[in-house]
Amino acid sequence: MKIKKLLSASLTFFFPFFLILLILFCFNILIKDFNLGHKSHNTYPKAMNWVKYSFDLRKKKITNFLFKLNNSDEGLPRVDIYVPEKTSNKLLSDVPYSTKKYLKAEMLINNKKQKVRMRYFGDNPNNWMFVQKAIRIKTKKSEIINRRRYFEYRPSQNRVLDEYVAFKIAKKLNLLVSEVRLVELFINDKSSGIYMEKERLNESFLRRNKIMPVNLYKGEASRNSEKKIDLEFNLDQNPGLWEKISLLNTRHENDYTDLIRLSNNIKKAESSKSDLNQILKFENIDLFARAMILEILLNNGSIKTSSKHNDWPKFILVKFIRY
Prior knowledge:
Layout: H1 2-37, H2 50-69, E1 78-82, H3 85-91, E2 103-109, E3 112-120, E4 135-138, E5 150-154, H4 160-172, E6 180-187, E7 190-198, H5 203-208, E8 216-219, E9 242-246, H6 257-269, H7 273-280, H8 284-299, H9 312-316
Parallel strand pairs: 1-6
Antiparallel strand pairs: 1-2, 2-3, 3-4, 4-5, 5-7, 6-7, 8-9
């Protein structure tokens, strides 16, 4: 009887606390779900089971911890980033806008902590609403490392090895894509898992590839976030979806005539053989052929990537098409 009374008293005492914790947990899930699916324009992430995600995450952390205890082999190259709590809070304070602001952080370079600036990147909330976040690091202009000032660390949303191999194949095909390497990213000395370290596509990227700065455009279709409202979402049809990330010095920054001409010629080439031949002139046919080889390799099942990788040529054909 005493045990029953004790259990009954304990349940009565602790029940309000369990109820409060449950309410807070549910409220936190509602906030996460709202930020994931309703705060970014033109993004449609799939429904997320946050309870299962939290459970699987903790299970994986325990598994990885036990694996490391029993395995002393050296793994992937280690990258250490130190992010103040204030920076973490600010980056997610008003998504998606807050994710685009560079804030204070530190990075371990040559065994020394170096002050850097960091932000999250990518318009899709999948890039920064989960534990693994896409991170861009910027060093000081006076502290460039191997001719690079920007370092990008992106977790794969597919099987990481497939995505890594896809970049390597593109490089072997002599397509102008970022150098990548697989690393284990540590944030505040805690492992965040496997990431792909990539170059940022900009003027420095062109120079490192021995290409003089030209107009280099970045296009992300419907993922071009909150700035492109009620515009045609097809990249081939709308030059307004593209952003200039490298400048040809002889052209004004707001001069998009080369991209507009290319877009118009692509439209005409759909029904005109002569216009199609015009696009394929000046070595472009070789460039398109190598891009199509990559697309075949990615989509024929030899490399299992998601359907969204059908858009790979739009990202890898960054070399300015000649006319």
